[in-house]
Amino acid sequence: MPASSEAPTLAVLVRQDLGMGPGxxxxxxxxxxxxxxxxxxxxxxxxxxxxxxxxxxxxxLAVPDEEALRTRQEQAEVLGIVHKAVRDAGRTEVPAGTxxxxxxxPAPANVLAPLIEGLATY
Length: 122
Known about the structure:
Layout lengths: L7 E8 L6 H22 L1 H9 L3 E7 L2 H14 L3 E5 L11 E10 H8 L6
Parallel strand pairs: 1-2
Antiparallel strand pairs: 1-4, 3-4
Helix pairs in contact: 1-2, 3-4
């Protein structure tokens, strides 16, 4: 069943150009989801509580590269959307400091739409 335009959603955008393995992607998505959750408990507590109470819709989407993350982070700042950039520690697959994923929200799906429209699921 499709989510309503008001459904609280947390989106995590994953860079495709890094070739990360599935375990690495899962870890990076987890870091972004936890970071957004913790930040939103303070910065947007009403959105966080609604998201949590409605079973925490989470979508993982693909972006081509770091520039795509940068553009969406700038848009999130303008729109006042909680976001979390994850930079890797460099212990496994990518060099230290590599920006791997960007978490957005939780926020109503219609608020996130300008940042995630046209992106394919990961």
